Amino acid sequence: MTLRQGPIPHGRTAAVASTLLAVSLLTGGTATAAGPAEHSAAASRPAWNGQFTGFGTSSWRTAWGLASSGSWGSSQLRAVTASDAPGDGSALQVTYGAGSSAGSCTDCPNPGGGQFYTDLKALGLTALAKSATLDLKYYAKFPSGQDWGKAGKLPGLYGGTIGDESGGNHGNGWSTRYMWRGDRTAPDNGEVYLYTPTNSGPTGYGVDLGLGTWKWAPDGNWHSIEQSVNRTTGDITVRYDGRQVFAARKAVPGIGSIPFGGVFFSTFYGGHDTSWGPKSTQHAYFADFSLSAAQQH
Description:
Elements: E1 2-3, E2 21-24, E3 29-33, E4 48-50, H1 58-64, E5 77-82, E6 90-96, E7 114-117, H2 126-129, E8 133-141, E9 151-160, E10 173-183, E11 186-195, E12 207-209, E13 223-230, E14 236-240, E15 243-248, E16 260-269, E17 282-292
Parallel strand pairs: 1-5
Antiparallel strand pairs: 2-3, 3-4, 4-17, 5-6, 6-17, 7-16, 8-13, 8-17, 9-10, 9-16, 10-11, 11-12, 13-14, 14-15
């Protein structure tokens, strides 16, 4: 399947010196390590890059360091070829059925969305897991006329024990997924949806950070979204299409002793019941994930 939408600039930082050590992690993802001489030049070069060529295969799972737990919704996730997609031209199409919500929904007429975790240790990136700062950048595309429903989740970072950072559970884990959420009659407001051991809201179902400081664009084009989390200070910064749209100090507390886990790919409408879902089947597209100890822009 080929998707034909308008192009968007998505060039990466130019290649660094030829002495850069590149470690291939099979089809769909790469890890890189720089020597002291290349450290400055490679500051914004991703330590890991994930594509969707071969999605679901054993080589793709290895390339993404897929965790053995926490996944659901594989039937709603499908790799597609998109000639305008950033990265290698592959993208992940996510289907959200009419009236769908989280995988735990018991009254939804249709399934929607999906979820999986990457594991930095499985990728051999233990040093990155223990770093003070981790930056996640990826591209998302929403078709024109997107039905946003009430609200929904989008991928972000996580740390600690899988299962302890979402869904009302908050133990030795944390997460900084995004959401789209209605506010003041606008259904496409962006925000960071936070879980930490010390701050998961009064009900334990998350904290809204920066609601409405940017809006997701339902225009059929690719848009970059980037978050940088400092687990030592609790600071977080978000950039949309390279422009800073949200920054807060000490907003992510209580995670200094919990290493970064990696990418928390999690997207669905909800909430946990059918009232959150769209009126008709919807789609979203994701491409070119990357992780770095430095901000990428």
